[in-house]
Amino acid sequence: MFPLHGKKQARITPYINYGLIGINVLVFLYELSLSNAQLDQFFQLYALIPQELTTSFAGVVINQLVPELATLFTSQFLHGSLFHLISNMVFLLILGNNIETRLGHFKYIIFYLTCGVLAALCQWFTAMDSTMPSLGASGAIFGVLGAYFIHSPRTLVRVLIGIFILKNVMSGVNDLQRVANMTVETGGVAYWANITGFVFGLLLYPLLGLLNNNQQQE
């Protein structure tokens, strides 16, 4: 935990975390309203397509509504199945509230989105020529999990990590496979993003905590 210098930290309402959960749920409900063809187009537009991101980094302009760099953010709010959504949101609800309370609203949203973007970039790096959409909030949530690991190291976080990883490995991407013909090997669940998201959470959380301490000392 971050030292409080003798001052009791005020309890804040984690409305950013609740908002993130709400957005993820609303986007998924919208996905359910789409036909298979429309859902495929939706993923192609808002999910991260590694090959297109590689082309964008090379300076080639891709003529589409959403710039490929923006999909580093938009892809964090997409899910391929109900189980994928529920497993992510349960962990975000349990863990995210505490981390937002510790960091504050602004630093928490920066922390969450940064973990998600960095995790997505690592996933892209492992398959830069892939045309399979990469999506999901898992990279950012694994970052929150890494922060919670530092925040409360004596809890059963180690067990939660194992359960969460197992759920991601076993999570059905049946809906996503049916619509976009994805598999674990060719796309769908971004396992490298999950792992690296956790590592980035371990690294970024203490840095933001130091900023909190510096502010208190001023």
Provide key terms for this protein:
single chain; 10 helices; mainly alpha; 218 residues; disordered C terminus; Rhomboid-like fold; disordered N terminus
Care to describe what's here?
The chain has 218 residues and is mostly helical. It has one domain (15-217): Rhomboid-like fold (Up-down Bundle). It contains ten helices and no strands. The longest helix has 27 residues, at 191-217.
Low-confidence stretches: 1-7, 171-189, 213-218
What characteristic shape results from the CA principal axes? globular
Strand tally: 0
What percentage of amino acids are in beta strands? under 5%
Percent range for helical residues? 55-70%
Instruction: Please trace the helix and strand order, writing H or E for each element.
Output: HHHHHHHHHH
Name the average pLDDT. 78
Under CATH, the topology is which? Rhomboid-like fold
- The top-level CATH class is Mainly Alpha
Q: What is the level-2 CATH architecture name?
A: Up-down Bundle
